[in-house]
Amino acid sequence: MKSGRLPQAERTYLSVQAIQKGVRGEEHPNSLNTMSSLAHVHLQTWDEKLKLTSWDLFRDQVLLGASLAGQAKYDAAEPLLLAGFDGLMREKNIIPPYDRFYVEVAGPWIVQLYQDWGKPDQAGEWTRRVQETNAANSSK
Questions:
Q1: 66 near 74, Cβ under 8 Å?
Q2: Considering the entire predicted model, what is its pTM?
Q3: pLDDT in tens, 51-105
Q4: Residues 90 and 48 grouped into a single domain
Q5: Are 43 and 10 in contact (CB under 8 A)?
Q6: What domain range includes position 79?
Q7: Does residue 1 carry a pLDDT above 70?
Q8: How far apart are CA 5 and CA 94, in angstroms?
Q9: What is the tally of helices (H) and strands (E) in the chain?
Q10: Which residue has the higher pLDDT, 138 or 105?
Q11: Domain ends where: 35, 52, 69?
Q12: Residues 98, 125: one domain?
């Protein structure tokens, strides 16, 4: 289905779904097929939105990494936090101003990860990196 027609397809499936629910019920095979088609349209729409911004992926990596770190799943959290931080730093100029705080919190979350994990050398290295990044950003 072409992306320009997704809104039209969604409206059509929603109309058909409402009629089918009233006539045949939600569990009729035709109703289920329509729900499946509507879900497919939503997935295509969601995929297109993901392609619009690349920094969202990095934000989500940082958030997931921080969540895993909070659960003491350090091995799983580390690569997500590091990749997310690097991506946010590369993309920081296209991040909307109201979301730029993710760039600011990602580094301290990495420091916290290493502190909680019992890796003081890495925590110190990241503390210095965060301070250098903050200094560079404040001089602009």
A1: no
A2: 0.62
A3: 546 788 899 899 999 999 999 999 999 999 999 999 999 999 999 999 999 999 9
A4: no
A5: no
A6: 55-138
A7: no
A8: 28
A9: 6, 0
A10: 105
A11: 52
A12: yes
